[in-house]
Amino acid sequence: MEMKKKYRKLNIASQAEILRSHQRDDDFVKYLREKVIDILQILQRKTGLLPFIHSDIPFKLVYFFFTSGMGNQTLGEEYTGLVQANLKAYKVPSIYARLLAIILECFGEKALIRLLKQLELSINHPHSKLTPTTVIFLNSFISKMYTIIPVFILLHKGLFYIFGRYYSLSKRIAGIDYAKVYGHRPIDTISSGLRLLGIATLIQCMLKIWQNYKSENHFEKYSILDEKHNKLMCQLCLEKVPTTTTPCGHLFCWFCLTDWLHTKPQCPLCREHVVPSRIVHVMNL
């Protein structure tokens, strides 16, 4: 009960204080990375660790594990007088919430992009058993996700500038906020300036969404015109007039279809089993 009363007296940290705290943490991570590179150069053992030292992620993991992960303030939080807190529950965030925030902060967006890339490779693999319609749908969905993710992150940043809650998506998912426990608060003009920046960021998001929507419409119009042209062409090479039909009725040029059936005895479009001897060369095309 005392803990609850104590947290009710805490002030929510302002946008400027949170930004200053994270900037100081980022500066220390970069400084730590530079020192490690200097040590490796002296020891002449830099070559094998190049993939790691060119990224800030390993250093962020170490830094935040020994600070936030162990229930301590980061250097930026000490400098600005902030503490991580779950203000809705009026309690200190659990160790699991802190670790979740650290993992998502370091790997969240990159892991999602990597997952989409792996899914894209799997969908478009030559031995995939998906139908062409499904492949087209999934490729369209993944393409939209590539554009939506950066816009969504930018939108969240704009909301932070305006409302001052949850600096990053990782903090929001983990339910971690910031409370001001000591030190002077910044003047109101700084927060007003950041709110103006937030409005500009939201406008930028809307423009990006409109631009993506416009480009998609242009692509769809082009695809419709291109599809009419492709109907008169082989569906494998898209260059030659189709002269050969499968038992299921799909048209291709002779060389493309015979090469395809030598590796996979299936129709390239509907995946129906096709014996190479059953294809018919249509002479009047």
Please tell me about this protein's structure.
The chain crosses the membrane at residues 136-163. With 285 residues, the protein is mostly helical. It has 2 domains: 15-214 and 224-229, no CATH class; 244-281, Herpes Virus-1 (2-Layer Sandwich). It contains 10 helices and 6 strands; from the N terminus they run αβααααβαααβαββαβ. The protein has helices at residues 2-8, 15-43, 50-53, 57-66, 75-80, 95-123, 132-163, 169-174, 188-230, 254-263, and strands at residues 11-12, 82-85, 177-180, 244-245, 251-252, 280-281. The protein has a 3-stranded antiparallel sheet. It has a 3-stranded antiparallel sheet with strand order 5-4-6. A hairpin with a 5-residue loop joins β4 (244-245) and β5 (251-252). α4 packs antiparallel against α6 and α7 packs antiparallel against α9. The radius of gyration is 28 Å and the shape is elongated. The N and C termini lie far apart (86 Å). Residues 1-7 have low confidence and may be disordered.
Poorly predicted runs = 1-7
Strand percentage: 5-15%
Q: What does the radius of gyration come to?
A: 28 Å
Quaternary organization: single chain
End-to-end Cα distance, whole Å, is 86 Å
Helicity, in percent? 55-70%
Shape: elongated
Query: What's the number of extended β-strand segments?
Result: 6
Derived structural class: mainly alpha
> Major sheet: size, sense and barrel closure?
3 strands, antiparallel
Q: What is the helix tally?
A: 10
How is the largest sheet built, in terms of strand order? 1-3-2
Q: Write down the overall mean pLDDT.
A: 78
Order of helices and strands: HEHHHHEHHHEHEEHE
GO cellular component, one term: peroxisomal membrane
GO molecular function: ubiquitin protein ligase activity; zinc ion binding
EC number: 2.3.2.27
Catalytic activity: S-ubiquitinyl-[E2 ubiquitin-conjugating enzyme]-L-cysteine + [acceptor protein]-L-lysine = [E2 ubiquitin-conjugating enzyme]-L-cysteine + N(6)-ubiquitinyl-[acceptor protein]-L-lysine
